[in-house]
């Protein structure tokens, strides 16, 4: 039997704590139905007997406090809301206990942006961490020693599991069930809770948000030019001349500031332009492709799929307005 400690972190969301508790408990029910011993001993483990969550809107009771729990096997960190800097500061009292438990063999299951706290205590340094696409820029700026992953839903490295997406934590918990109890139990949980077990990527859901908090006016000028004229055809030489900076120097500065090459940035902006028109559903795919400035439809399809994991047609089928 594995002991599961769900931590009611400051600014943790009640939904993620309750969902984790219910899912782990349900696996025990599955085991009972199959005539097997229960697998998880689940407890909410806090700093005190009562913890306020989500900006003080809710209060949750702890089964134990960290002071009277010597050993646990799995630690679940909930999704956080509010200001990440505040959450990091307020949750600091958990740090020594959490690090000691991890060094003693406990696994850490980090739900979505709960990773901001985990990164702040150094346990993600040099590791991969899945981050929600909308939080990527802020996370990368705060924790440069962490290998940020904003396309995959889940990472698994050294007994630490992370996920990107507010409800992608459901997929992460299914992944944990498969590791602990086998594929059959994970599939059963997927069916009972109607969770898409095969969801692996954030790309179909992501909206490209260029990193602009860098202070380089020349780079910012080019970013704004690309974003305000997404259908224009650019050459690198034209953009470099616009800011009067040599190509090699400017390409280096642009990548350092934005995390993307200039070519990649242009492609991603054009893909976002195409996505909006595909969602509207009024123009053909070919018409939209030509509007982006591409003359080769097949070439744009490859670029589109690179960033969304879907073809333009598949994207339209998924997101275009429809009547029931």
UniProtKB/TrEMBL annotation:
It comes from Rurimicrobium arvi. PANTHER family: ARAC-FAMILY TRANSCRIPTIONAL REGULATOR (PTHR43130), HTH-TYPE TRANSCRIPTIONAL REGULATOR RV1931C (PTHR43130:SF3). Keywords: DNA-binding, Transcription, Transcription regulation. Signal peptide: none annotated. This is Helix-turn-helix domain-containing protein. Pfam families: DJ-1_PfpI (PF01965), HTH_18 (PF12833). Residues 220-318 form the HTH araC/xylS-type domain. InterPro entries: Class_I_gatase-like, DJ-1/PfpI, Homeodomain-like_sf, HTH_AraC, INH-QAR, Tscrpt_reg_AraC-type_HTH. The keyword Repressor does not apply. The keyword Transcription applies. SMART domains: HTH_ARAC (SM00342).
């Amino acid at each position: 039997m594995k002991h599961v400690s769900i931590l009611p972190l400051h600014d943790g969301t009640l939904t993620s704590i309750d969902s984790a508790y219910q899912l782990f408990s349900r696996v025990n029910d599955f085991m009972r139905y199959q005539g097997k011993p229960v697998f998880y001993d689940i407890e909410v483990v806090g700093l005190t007997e009562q913890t306020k969550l989500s900006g003080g809107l809710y209060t949750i009771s702890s089964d134990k406090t960290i002071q009277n729990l010597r050993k646990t096997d799995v630690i679940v960190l909930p999704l956080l809301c509010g200001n990440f800097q505040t959450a990091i500061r307020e949750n600091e009292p958990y740090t020594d206990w959490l690090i000691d438990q991890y060094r003693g063999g406990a696994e850490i299951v980090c739900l979505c942006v709960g990773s901001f706290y985990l990164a702040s205590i150094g346990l993600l340094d040099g590791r991969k961490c899945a981050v929600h696409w909308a939080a990527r820029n802020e996370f990368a700026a705060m924790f440069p020693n962490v290998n940020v992953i904003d396309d995959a839903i889940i990472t698994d490295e050294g007994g630490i599991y992370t996920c990107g997406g507010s409800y992608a934590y459901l997929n992460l918990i299914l992944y944990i069930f498969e590791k602990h109890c086998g594929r059959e139990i994970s599939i059963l949980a997927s069916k009972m809770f109607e969770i898409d077990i095969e969801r692996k990527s954030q790309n179909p859901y992501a909206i490209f948000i260029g990193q602009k908090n860098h202070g380089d006016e020349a780079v910012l000028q080019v970013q704004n030019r690309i974003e305000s004229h997404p259908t224009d055809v650019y050459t690198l030489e034209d953009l470099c001349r616009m800011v009067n900076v040599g190509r090699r120097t400017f390409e280096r500065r642009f990548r350092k500031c934005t995390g993307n090459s200039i070519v990649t940035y242009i492609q991603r902006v054009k893909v976002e332009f195409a996505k909006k028109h595909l969602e509207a559903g009024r123009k053909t795919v070919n018409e939209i492709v030509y509007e982006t400035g591409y003359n080769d439809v097949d070439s744009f399809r490859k670029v589109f799929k690179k960033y969304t994991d879907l073809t333009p047609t598949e994207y339209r089928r998924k997101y275009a307005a429809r009547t029931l």
